[in-house]
Design a protein that fits this description.
Helix content is 52%, strand content 0%. The protein contains 4 helices and no strands. Helix 3 packs across helix 4 (64-92). The radius of gyration is 29 Å and the shape is elongated. The protein starts with 8 loop residues before the first helix and ends in a 14-residue tail after the last helix.
Length: 106
């Protein structure tokens, strides 16, 4: 049985080190924070949308997935609007590339 075996000196020393290591001797690992926008693969800032939701007092508590979802919806709507305006501008433009209206110069 695993629990009835007598641990070796190496096992005892490893367990002792794991349980009694002082935090002052080891430097904390400085992991760089990954932004939520990067995790969700969005171009719009998730953190800023989330903080706007919290500051707007729309609810007592606002979750992180709510901010991610709203950011994704805003990005999708903006992308669709830009694509639509691009196709509309391409349809109404002259074939030669000249403008219909010229600004008056005085």
């Amino acid at each position: 049985n695993y629990f009835r075996t007598i641990p070796s000196k190496a096992t005892v020393s490893v367990l002792y080190c794991l349980t009694t290591t002082p935090t002052t001797t080891m430097a904390p690992s400085k992991k760089e924070r990954t932004p939520l926008s990067e995790k969700a693969k969005l171009a719009f800032p998730v953190g800023r949308v989330g903080s706007s939701l919290r500051k707007g007092r729309y609810a007592k508590r606002v979750s992180t997935p709510a901010a991610v979802f709203l950011t994704a919806v805003l990005q999708y709507a903006t992308t669709e609007l830009l694509e639509l305006s691009q196709t509309t501008a391409a349809q109404h433009c002259c074939p030669e590339g000249k403008m219909h209206h010229q600004a008056k110069t005085h």
